[in-house]
Amino acid sequence: MDKVTFEIFRYDPDKDSKPYYQKYDVEIRRPGMLMLAGLNQIKWEIDPTLSFRRSCREGVCGSDGINVNGVNMLSCMTKIEDLGSKHIVIQPLPGMPVVRDLVVDVDDFFNKFITVKPYLIRKSPTPDGEFYQSPEDRKLLDGLYECILCGCCSSSCPSYWSDKEYLGPNAFLRAWRYLVDSRDEGADERLPILNDKHGVWRCHTIYNCVKACPKELNPTQAITSIRKMIMDKQF
Q1: CA-to-CA distance for 149 and 19, rounded, in angstroms?
Q2: What is the spatial distance between Cα 129 and Cα 114, in angstroms, rounded to a whole number?
Q3: What is the tens place of the pLDDT at every residue in 57-99?
Q4: Of the candidates 74, 78, 79, the residue with the CA atom closest to the CA atom of residue 30
Q5: Pick from 42, 36, 68, 69: which is nearest to 55 by CA?
Q6: Between β-strands 87-91 and 3-10, what pairing exists: parallel, antiparallel or unpaired?
Q7: First vs last C-alpha separation in the chain
Q8: Smallest Cα–Cα separation from 63: which of 50, 74, 47, 71?
């Protein structure tokens, strides 16, 4: 049976003075075996002290974002064989405080997400029926609403690492999802938040976020669109 080596970032603040890396041999037990299956093999059969997040195993919950060989990805969507290496280095998502091993503190990430008001804002009277949206307007949301809040995009961004107040590509993608929604009337509230030195102008179009997104979304394009809207509205 084929094997690969997982070299995993380890850190338990209750007993470790500093982080270290630990190697484990993982058996490839079937074609297309996922990274998550390898981590589970270690957790269940080799070392129960290893800590990592996972839930749905379907690429929907976004809880299992990790950094593999320097690239952010979801362990439940990544096939070991696709990495093309027998030696795989696994680390927590960068730019986020480590709680333990591969588990990071996501409070700041979600607080920034909430800052951009990720919900419909209405100022007109509520209609008696539905908020009608044409098929053409609905199609504008494709490539925006699919975000699963895994954090892979923001934690791959150098601006997010260096500027602790920077909202990050995830927040901008979600802001644009509502700014472009024909039913929303909250642009005057959101754009001043985004038009800030820690907002969309801090992006340097490095495209790490695009490469890291497991859903193949494009936060950089959203950022460019927000900038244009800001200039058009002269905020």
Answers
A1: 26
A2: 28
A3: 999 999 999 999 999 999 999 999 999 999 999 999 999 999 9
A4: 79
A5: 36
A6: parallel
A7: 62
A8: 74
Write out pLDDT tens, residues 8-28: 999 999 999 999 999 999 999
Which one, of 143, 136, 144, 99, lies nearest residue 118 by Cα? 144
Give the residue ranges of DSSP H helices in 101-150: 107-115, 135-139
Residue 55's region, left for phi above 0, alpha for psi from -120 to 50, else beta, is alpha
Distance CA 18, CA 185 (A): 49
Helices (H), the chain: 35-41, 107-115, 135-139, 158-162, 169-179, 187-194, 208-212, 219-233
Instruction: Choose among 150, 149, 146, 171: nearest CA to 160.
Output: 171
Q: For the sheet with 71-74, list strands across it.
A: 20-27, 3-10, 87-91, 65-68, 71-74
Q: Are 19 and 44 in contact (CB under 8 A)?
A: no
| pLDDT of res. 235 | 61
Number of H helices, E strands in the chain: 8, 7
Domains with residue ranges and CATH for the chain: 3-104 (3.10.20.30), 107-233 (1.10.1060.10)
Within 8 A by CB and 6+ apart from 219, the residues are 153, 169, 170, 172, 173, 209, 210, 213
